[in-house]
Amino acid sequence: MTIQLQRFLIFPLLGLLTIGCSKGPSLAPVSGTVTLNGKAVDGVRVTFEPIIGESDVTDEEFYTSFGITDEDGHYEMKTEVQDKLKEGAVIGGVTVRFVCTKRQSFMNKGLEDSRAIYDLPKSARDKSMTYTVDKSGSTEADFDL
Fold first, then answer.
1. Which of 19, 48, 92, 121 could join 65 in a cystine, given CB atoms 3.0 to 4.6 angstroms apart?
2. What global pTM score does this model have?
3. What distance in Å separates the CA atoms of residue 65 and residue 85, rounded to the nearest whole number?
4. Taking Cα atoms as reference points, which of 39, 22, 65 lies closest to residue 145?
5. What is the pLDDT at residue 5?
6. Any bridge partners for residue 26, and if so which?
7. Do β-strands 92-100 and 129-133 pair in parallel, antiparallel, or remain unpaired?
8. CB proximity list for 140: less than 8 A, separation 6 or greater
9. Mean pLDDT, rounded, for 126-131
10. Is 14 contained in some domain?
């Protein structure tokens, strides 16, 4: 095999290996409590979506961090990186969104229906809330909705 042919085959392969070996974004441990009108909420999904330019992510590698509150309203953030769930949230500026995962069944015109247990305010759902994840992390990322 000629040297030019070897280079033609080897360099693209090295490029692919480099792309596949990305370690992902820098993460910091983040936890806190979510309350609604001062009372703890259970089963609320907290999502941190990095703000491009204010965090350790790019358009090509976008990572979302999430946590789900327990009966005390406490949550701990996790981030999926290369098909593995890692503790922590992406460092930097993030938008914050809350979604109630617990549903309540009821009858509606003879049919069973359901709705979220908590009526979260629009500001909790529309990504207008922001938070900054410090590189040292936080155990007090608390939100009162």
1. 48
2. 0.75
3. 10
4. 39
5. 41
6. none
7. antiparallel
8. 32
9. 91
10. no
Q: What's the rounded mean pLDDT across residues 85-109?
A: 86
| Other CB atoms within 10 Å distance of the CB of residue 105 | 9
| Residue 17 domain-assigned (yes or no) | no
Per-residue pLDDT, averaged over 102-108, amounts to 70
Of 37-41, 59-63, 86-90, the poorest mean pLDDT is in 59-63
* Cβ atoms of 70 and 42 closer than 8 Å: yes
Answer yes or no: is 58 within a domain: yes
Q: Phi then psi for 122, rounded to 5 degrees?
A: -55, -40
Q: Tokens 């701990």 identify what position?
A: 76
Q: Which domain holds residue 41?
A: 24-144
Q: How far is CA 7 from CA 15, 16, 17, 98, 144, in A?
A: 12, 14, 15, 51, 59
**pLDDT one-digit tens code per residue, 6-31:** 444 444 444 444 444 557 888 999 99
Does residue 18 belong to any structural domain of this protein? no
